[in-house]
């Protein structure tokens, strides 16, 4: 059996190789804007709907940068989250999250009354008939319209991506157990490297697009640690990435501030952690402390600069051009190659 099993890769396993001379004289000539579910954004990055990251200050700050963010899914405090959403003056770049079981249709309707148009059906496993029922119920609801955009997931294969694509959703989250505080893969053994999932889906998507078939936005969810990971996601066919940890520890993050031995930290917890669930059932997440690291504006500029530089190296001025990258521009790195390409101190 193992002779037929393929190897799975993630971000640290690949590198990008420029094979033509760049004509871009400065990275300011690069345009990092793109479209996510018909919404024009300044960067192909979406803030994950995580309770210890997402809140009014974070959503407002990212909205100023024209970056899409999501409020977290309600568990026992829907009215509190609805109240937060209702107070935003500009909701264009702020989405909301709902579940797929209890009260999801009621939550959808109430958010619609407040003007919500971008929804994330936030569940761990999107390849389930329960999700199918929820999506169809929402699409059949009187408050649904062409303006409503649905992002859902998560999936870990091309087959499950196609299952959701056939339900006419607008974006699909790729990756199960990929988040920094997600222990789903540890608890269940489910999942594979995000790069390999993207490779499977991109190959199928190219075939279908050639036949004129519309397919949803591909959102690589989890595992983003550095700006280069965003670059690699795009190279492998993602339309955008969803991330939580890169925003954790900022002033605007929702997590509580904790002082320990003179150092300030913020709490950061996975959505399936005991801290967020507040019980001992279905624990597939962890929690930790992240050093307070300044404003989210600094994070945005760091990731924007990294993407601009990468695009200039590869001689691409737009995200659309960048997505035309060829297989010969991608290499699989040996373990020693990975070590060599990261900052390290050489001692005598």
Short description:
The protein has 348 residues and is α/β, with parallel strands linked by helices. It has twelve helices and 15 strands.
Describe the structure.
The structure is a single chain. This protein is 32% helix and 18% strand. It is globular and about 55 Å long. α8 (227-235) crosses α10. The protein contains twelve helices and 15 strands. It is of the alpha/beta class. The model has no long low-confidence stretch (mean pLDDT 89). The strands form four sheets. It has an eight-stranded parallel barrel, surrounded by five helices. α4 (129-140) links the parallel β7 and β8 (149-155). It has one domain: TIM Barrel, CATH 3.20.20.
Question: What attributes does this structure have?
Answer:
eight-stranded parallel beta barrel; three-stranded antiparallel beta sheet; TIM Barrel; 12 helices; 348 residues; 32% helix
Low-confidence stretches: none
Task: Describe the largest sheet.
Answer: 8 strands, parallel, barrel
Query: From the 3D coordinates, which CATH architecture would you assign?
Result: Alpha-Beta Barrel
Strand order of the largest sheet: 4-5-6-7-8-9-10-11
Structural class by helix and strand composition: alpha/beta
Report the CATH C-level class: Alpha Beta
Beta-strand percentage range: 15-25%
Query: What is the total number of structural domains?
Result: 1
Label the overall shape: globular
Distance between the termini: 47 Å
What is the overall pLDDT average? 89
The CATH topology: TIM Barrel
Encode the helix/strand succession as letters: EEEEHEHEHEHEHEHHEHEEEHEHHEH
Q: What's the total number of strands? A: 15
* Number of alpha- plus pi-helical segments: 12
Radius of gyration: 20 Å
For the record, what is the CATH homologous superfamily label? Aldolase class I
Percent range of helical residues: 25-40%
């Amino acid at each position: 059996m193992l002779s037929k099993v393929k190897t799975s890769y993630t971000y640290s396993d690949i590198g990008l190789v420029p094979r033509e001379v760049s004509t871009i004289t400065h990275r300011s000539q690069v345009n990092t804007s793109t479209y996510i579910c018909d919404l024009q954004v300044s960067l192909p990055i979406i803030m994950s709907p995580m309770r210890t990251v997402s809140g009014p200050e974070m959503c407002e700050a990212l909205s100023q940068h024209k970056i899409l963010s999501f409020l977290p899914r309600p568990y026992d405090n829907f009215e509190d989250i609805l109240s937060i959403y209702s107070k935003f003056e500009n909701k264009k770049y702020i989405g909301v999250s709902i579940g797929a079981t209890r009260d999801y249709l009621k939550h959808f309707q109430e958010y619609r009354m407040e003007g919500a148009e971008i929804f994330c059906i936030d569940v761990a496993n999107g390849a389930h008939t329960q999700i199918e029922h929820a999506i169809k119920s929402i699409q059949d609801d009187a408050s649904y319209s062409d303006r409503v955009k649905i992002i859902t997931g998560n999936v870990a294969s091309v087959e499950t991506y196609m299952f959701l694509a056939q339900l006419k959703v607008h974006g699909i989250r790729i990756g199960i157990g990929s988040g920094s505080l997600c222990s789903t893969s540890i608890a269940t053994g489910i999942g594979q490297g995000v790069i390999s999932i993207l490779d499977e889906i991109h190959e199928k998507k190219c075939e279908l697009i050639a036949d004129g078939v519309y397919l949803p936005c591909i959102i690589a969810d989890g595992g983003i640690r550095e700006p280069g990971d965003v670059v690699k996601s795009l190279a492998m066919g993602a339309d955008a990435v969803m991330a939580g940890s890169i925003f954790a520890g900022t002033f605007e993050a929702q997590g509580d501030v904790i002082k320990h031995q003179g150092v300030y930290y913020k709490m950061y917890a996975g959505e399936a952690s005991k801290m967020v669930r507040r019980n001992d059932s279905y624990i597939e997440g962890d929690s930790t402390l992240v050093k307070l690291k300044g404003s989210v504006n600094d994070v945005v500029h760091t990731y924007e600069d990294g993407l601009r530089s990468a695009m200039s190296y590869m001689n691409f001025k737009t995200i659309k051009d960048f997505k035309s990258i060829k297989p010969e521009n991608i290499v699989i790195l040996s373990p020693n190659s990975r070590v060599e390409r990261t900052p390290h101190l050489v001692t005598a």
